């Protein structure tokens, strides 16, 4: 029989310590965007229901994941089967959520399926192309650089090491701006891929499904990450760790506040 002395209690780690032991592209991106929003989400852990736009993106991503997994297993998934999966996930994923549809759920549902249907017609990925990896969780120990562990989940890796990320957008993306806005994410994924495979990625593809009246697919190819991008990321991680440790949670008012779910909490901040 085990006794208390046989199972000593492991001391609880303070939350800020946990947040600096490992870091992801999403955490870094939010930190760079607004440190107070980072605090509300990761420190205060204030839960917010998904907005209609976020829910559309989540469902589209989930169905594309199913499509990629089917190809990885060597199965062909036709449009009818994919629509069945879409219908099931649209309903099931709402359980326990309070999404403010404001009478627009059917419209948003039609938008989501329209994006998926258009993607299947226009995708540069052939039905018989077998992925190298789908929704794979990767991590890289950056301890030799004095930095925490880097973690991330990659949507898709195509043959020859092309890393793909799926995004939904309300506007047609500008290639130059996209490269800048996604640099933290792309550089993180490149480092994770290299650490996990021992090889360099051959490049990236950002697949934007654009929610306009007539859906569009915009594929933005990006080259492998550079040494300069890696150095920039390391400095960003270093800044993140130092900022979290000194609890530097300050707001960054700007145009991004228009769609922020924490606007009321931010206005009450002092």
Helix fraction, binned, reads 40-55%
Low-pLDDT windows of residues: 1-5
**Element order: H for helix, E for strand:** HEHHHHHEEEHHEEHH
The second-level CATH architecture of the domain at 131-230 is Alpha-Beta Complex
What structural category do the secondary elements indicate?
alpha/beta
CATH fold call of the domain at 131-230? Lambda Exonuclease, Chain A
Overall average residue pLDDT: 93
Could you tell me how far the N terminus lies from the C terminus, measured between alpha carbons in angstroms? Answer: 53 Å
The tally of strands reads: 6
Describe the 3D structure.
The protein is an alpha/beta fold and 270 residues long. It has a domain at 131-230: Alpha-Beta Complex (Lambda Exonuclease, Chain A), CATH 3.90.320. Helix content is 46%, strand content 16%. It has ten helices and six strands; from the N terminus they run H-E-H-H-H-H-H-E-E-E-H-H-E-E-H-H. Strand 5 (203-210) and strand 6 (216-222) form a beta hairpin. Helix 1 (15-21) packs antiparallel against helix 9, helix 2 (25-33) crosses helix 3 and helix 4 (52-72) crosses helix 5 (79-92).
């Amino acid at each position: 029989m085990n006794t208390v002395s046989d199972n000593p209690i492991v001391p609880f780690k303070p939350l800020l310590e946990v947040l600096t032991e490992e870091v992801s592209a999403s955490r870094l991106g939010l930190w760079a965007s607004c440190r107070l929003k980072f605090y509300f989400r990761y420190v205060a852990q204030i839960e917010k229901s998904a907005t209609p736009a976020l829910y559309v993106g989540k469902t589209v991503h989930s169905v594309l994941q199913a499509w990629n997994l089917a190809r990885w297993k060597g199965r062909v998934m036709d449009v009818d089967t994919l629509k069945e999966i879409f219908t099931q996930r649209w309903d099931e994923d709402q359980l326990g959520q309070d999404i403010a549809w404001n009478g627009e759920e059917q419209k948003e549902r039609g938008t989501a399926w329209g994006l998926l249907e258009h993607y299947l017609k226009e995708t540069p990925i052939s039905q018989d192309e077998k992925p190298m990896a789908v929704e794979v969780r990767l991590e890289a120990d950056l301890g030799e650089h004095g930095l925490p562990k880097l973690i991330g989940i990659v949507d898709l890796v195509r043959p020859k090491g092309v890393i793909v990320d799926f995004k939904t957008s309300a506007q047609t993306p500008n290639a130059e701006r996209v490269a800048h806005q996604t640099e933290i994410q792309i550089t993180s994924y490149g480092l994770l891929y290299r650490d996990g495979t021992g090889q360099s990625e051959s490049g990236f593809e950002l697949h934007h499904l654009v929610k306009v009246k007539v859906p569009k697919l915009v594929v933005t190819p990006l080259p492998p990450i550079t040494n300069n991008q890696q150095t920039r990321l390391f400095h960003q991680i270093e800044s993140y760790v130092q900022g979290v440790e000194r609890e530097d949670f300050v707001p960054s008012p700007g145009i991004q506040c228009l769609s922020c779910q924490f606007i009321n909490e931010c206005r009450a901040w002092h």
